[in-house]
Amino acid sequence: MNPLLSRLQPYPFERLRQLFVGVTPNPAYTPISLGIGEPKHPTPEFIKQALAGALGGLAVYPATAGEPKLRDTFRHWLQTRYALMAVDANTQMLPVNGSREALFAFAQTVIDPTKKPVVVCPNPFYQIYEGAALLAGAEPYYAPCDPARNFAVDWDSVPLEVWARTQLLFVCSPGNPTGAVMPLQEWKKLFELSDKHGFVIASDECYSEIFFRDEPPLGGLQASVKLGRPDFKNLVSFTSLSKRSNVPGMRSGFVAGDAALIKKFLLYRTYHGSAMSPVIQQASIAAWGDEQHVVENRNLYREKFAQVTPMLAEVMDVQLPDAGFYLWAGVGGSDTEFARDLLAQYNVTVLPGSYLARESGGKNPGTGRIRMALVAPTAECVEAAQRIVQFVQSRKSSQ
Predict the structure, then answer these.
(1) Contact 259, 88 (CB under 8 A)
(2) How far apart are CA 118 and CA 163, in angstroms?
(3) What is the count of structural domains for the chain?
(4) What is the rounded distance in angstroms from the CA atom of residue 249 to the CA atom of residue 241?
(5) Mind listing the pLDDT tens digit for each residue in 331-384?
(6) Are residues 344 and 356 in the same domain?
(7) Buried b / exposed e across 15-31, counting CB within 10 Å, b at 16+?
(8) Strands 139-146, 152-153: parallel, antiparallel or unpaired by DSSP?
């Protein structure tokens, strides 16, 4: 048995199940879950039709690199979304079976375990970063987010000796769970560190199309071009249809960036057996080729957050994020007790923030916070917010 498996920590939702053992939710309320970030808006009909119309592809072995038309669709989307005019569809992009699978596999491609490698990631973070690092034989280093700077990651807190051993840096913009978007100057700092120490940057951008400001979030490849790095040296971005198009079950996304890294990643994936089904490829071409459903989806989230955020801000430390579909709220006490008592009294599920972070420097930056995924219909999210307000007020009155 692979001994590295013993280093994996329980996934946050397994810890949540354990936390709720013995809890009987109040039967006076219908259950509402804000715990899992699974999109609940309807999948667009044209994507379903494209999927059904491509079933003949089940009789064909797919190419790991994907069909040329699919890669050209990626290229066109990057041009439209980020004004990236010179990305090569043949050498700088690959289809992947969702960003989660790709982020994990990419670490296995990049890490050299013989050199005591370090993988740096934000803290709090998406747990795949940690698992990918551990199973690649690397040591994770957790760079804390700073609440005073809209939860921007404090990269300056990472010691020089850690950067010197770093082989891979995971960044997430917009962030999970905080929703923070990295500005150009932050990218500049990371590119300079990458140039100095030679590490690769994996940019997780799966929430890029759900945003609340007029200006869409800056992407890693876009930042690279703006800073005079058109070859995307040591940079690969990861994006997905799951949140953008409400197709989490389709498992479809793509990576793009440094041609040398993409070449190695393709080699790994050829042996890994992770080629995208021709059926999924055709549905993906349809999804990436349409923006109207993305605008409509984004507007649904904007309406939802506009109603829910002010309600919760009256009783909690929470504000509208830059992007994403999470609220990252301070509860003024134990996040685990808050989640457990909320379920018991009001039948609403939220995720304790401490489950999404690790203790570093004597502190877990998720402690005292909860993550709420506003993925359900607006009316359901508003109902959940009303219950949370009642819950917080009742706790305060009893203290």
Answers:
(1) yes
(2) 8
(3) 2
(4) 10
(5) 999 999 999 999 999 999 999 999 999 998 889 999 999 999 999 999 999 999
(6) yes
(7) bbeebbeeeebeeeeee
(8) antiparallel
Domain span at residue 322? 3-42+293-398
Q: Does 325 share its domain with 242?
A: no
One-letter identity of residue 154 = D
Q: In what order do the strands lie in the sheet with 139-146?
A: 93-96, 253-257, 235-240, 200-204, 166-172, 118-123, 139-146, 152-153
* The token pair that represents 188 in the structure block: 């500049």
Whether 278 and 185 map to the same domain: the answer is: yes
Asked which of 290, 309, 326 is the last residue of a domain, the reply is 290
Q: Are strands 32-33 and 348-349 parallel, antiparallel or unpaired?
A: parallel
Q: How far is CA 278 from CA 29, 140, 262, 320, 321, in A?
A: 44, 36, 21, 39, 37
Residue type at position 269: R
Instruction: Tell whether 307 and 377 lie within a shared domain.
Output: yes
Residues 66 and 25 in one domain: no
* Whether the Cβ atoms of residue 367 and residue 353 lie closer than 8 Å to each other: yes
- Boundary-marking domain end, from 290, 323, 338: 290
Q: Is the peptide bond before 321 cis (omega within 30 degrees of 0)?
A: no
Stated pTM of the model: 0.97
Q: Which two tokens stand for residue 340?
A: 């457990």
Q: Are residues 150 and 93 in the same domain?
A: yes
Give tens-digit pLDDT for 196-247: 999 999 999 999 999 998 899 999 999 999 999 999 999 999 999 999 999 9
